[in-house]
Amino acid sequence: MKLKTFKKGVHPYGGKEYAKDCAIAPVEPQDEMVFPLSQNLGAPSKAVVAKGDRVLKGQMIAEAGGFISAPIFSSVSGTVKAIEKRLVVNGSRIDSIVIENDGLDEAVEGFGSKRKLEDLSKDEIIDAVRGAGIVGLGGAGFPTAVKLTPKNADSIDKIIINGAECEPYLTSDYRLMLEKPDEILFGIQAMLKVLPNAQAIIGIEANKPEAIDIMTKVARVDDRVSVCPLKTKYPQGGERQLIYAVTGRKINSKMLPADKGCIVDNVGTVFAIYEAVYENKPLIHNIATVTGEGVNKPGNFDIPLGISHSYLLETAGGAKEDAVKFISGGPMMGIAMESLDVPMIKTSAAILAYCKDEVAEAKETPCIHCGRCVRACPENLIPQLMGRAVKREDIEAFGKLGGMECIECGCCAYGCPAKIPLTQMFKLGKLQLRELNAKK
Predict the structure, then answer these.
(1) Could you give phi then psi for residue 177, rounded to 5 degrees?
(2) How far apart are CA 81 and CA 97, in angstroms?
(3) Phi and psi at residue 350, in whole multiples of 5°?
(4) Can you say how many angstroms the Cα of residue 86 is from the centroid of all Cα atoms in its chain?
(5) Which of 57, 304, 332, 429 has the highest count of CB atoms within 10 angstroms of its CB?
């Protein structure tokens, strides 16, 4: 079978062997749990509790702050210790709800009560997803209920489930497919009831043959669901690249997948949909990978949201003495952390530890015009010219070169022999271009 893929991209070292064979292990909550109010794309959530309030596991502690937003729920029972600014992964301090865990694990009434899909209407399914605070767990955290209610709902003919997990080192989605295949299928069927004109396709990279086999067997019970094996290449799991590989349809920064008849969610999000619809559970936990050469005991963990990165790392046996760099997420699109004392949120996917910081040690040299960045860019951009425009602060030229089409995947910087930090430059360029357009 010819594997489907997209054009260009790169083949970085996979690093999957560190954690791929480690079953998902539960993690107990810690004494102090921190819930930042910005955990999704769009408006921050708004606190609905106050200092001194007692809360229960599964209780809403912050409501959606707008249409593009999502509520937040406590993963423990305890007392609201404070609502104050706390440090988060990107180095900023944002308003957060701090809860002192009482260790009683008392849940709200109805938490975990079973429901049958056939008893629920389309609107009830959407309300369950919205009410559970589910956002995209494989990317920017776009509210899932909004994604499931496109303006052109009747024209959606493809629900694409992202099981590619193309980011090196990460294995949590892989383990989820191995350990919870039936639940993923049930989540897909709930989505199909909401979008009845669609067929569901699960895209999985070829370096995960066990997941392909298991999900193919599970999908046989429903002729609306199929598995599409994909070529192992980065960024195969990028939304635009996945849509093109599976359907041949192209989208750009001015379009939504729904404009091309597609809805895309990763397997973690689909599992969260299953729990919300079938088990009446809000999003209070996630599956994360702790991995890399700098970790004593790499593995995959079922984490209660609100624990710190440092606490999770200690659960994995801690870091090795010579570990020098820690990334929240994967090596291509993750964020290097100055401090590990920051909370795990809805979109937290991994902690990666290195014993050598190759990025810090690299010395930038002048561009040699080799064209490797052009050959690697999955968006068919010309990174060397875009980088030159950002350097000379010609943001309008950056925009004309298609700067907003950059998906910040890191392929250009990965292949650059001159070690030019192209991706970071483009993040800055896009920010400045948005500000310029806003002024206009």
Answers:
(1) -70, -35
(2) 8
(3) -170, 160
(4) 22
(5) 429
Classify each residue of 209-226 as buried b or exposed e, where b means 16 or more C-beta atoms within 10 Å of its C-beta. Answer: eebbebbbebbeeeeebe
CA distance 44 to 127: 20
Mean pLDDT of all residues in 276-292: 98
Sequence-ordered strand ranges (E) for 305-434: 325-328, 335-336, 350-354
Side-chain half-sphere CA neighbours of 423 within 13 A:
19
C-beta of residue 289 within 8 angstroms of C-beta of residue 19:
yes
342-381 as b/e: b if 16+ CB within 10 A: bbbbbbbbbbbbbeeeeeeeeeeeebeeeebbbebbbbeb
* Tokens coding 117: 């899909």
Average pLDDT over residues 290-316: 97
Predicted confidence (pLDDT) per residue in 35-90, tens digit: 999 999 999 999 999 999 999 999 999 999 999 999 999 999 999 999 999 999 99
Distance CA 300, CA 21 (A): 9
- pLDDT tens for each residue of 317-360: 999 999 999 999 999 999 999 999 999 999 999 999 999 998 88
For the record, the structure tokens of 366 come out as 């002048």
Give yes or no for a contact between 80 and 98, defined as CB atoms under 8 angstroms apart: yes
Distance CA 65, CA 76 (A): 22
Query: Is the distance from CB of 162 to CB of 258 less than 8 angstroms?
Result: no
Q: What is the DSSP string of 406-438?
A: -----HHHHH-TT---HHHHHHHHHHHHHHHHH
Distance CA 377, CA 381 (A): 6
* CA distances from residue 74 to 63, 78, 102, 137, 243 in whole angstroms, order as listed: 12, 9, 12, 18, 34
Structure tokens at 423: 């991706």
Residue 131: both structure tokens together: 């009410």
Residue 332 structure tokens: 């291509």
Q: Name the burial class of residue 431, with classes exposed (0-12), middle (13-18) and buried (19+) by CB atoms within 10 angstroms of its CB.
A: exposed
- pLDDT tens digit string along 203-214? 999 999 999 999
Structure confidence at residue 361 (pLDDT): 86
- Residue 301 belongs to what H/E stretch? strand 299-304
Nearest to 233, CA basis, from 245, 243, 215: 245
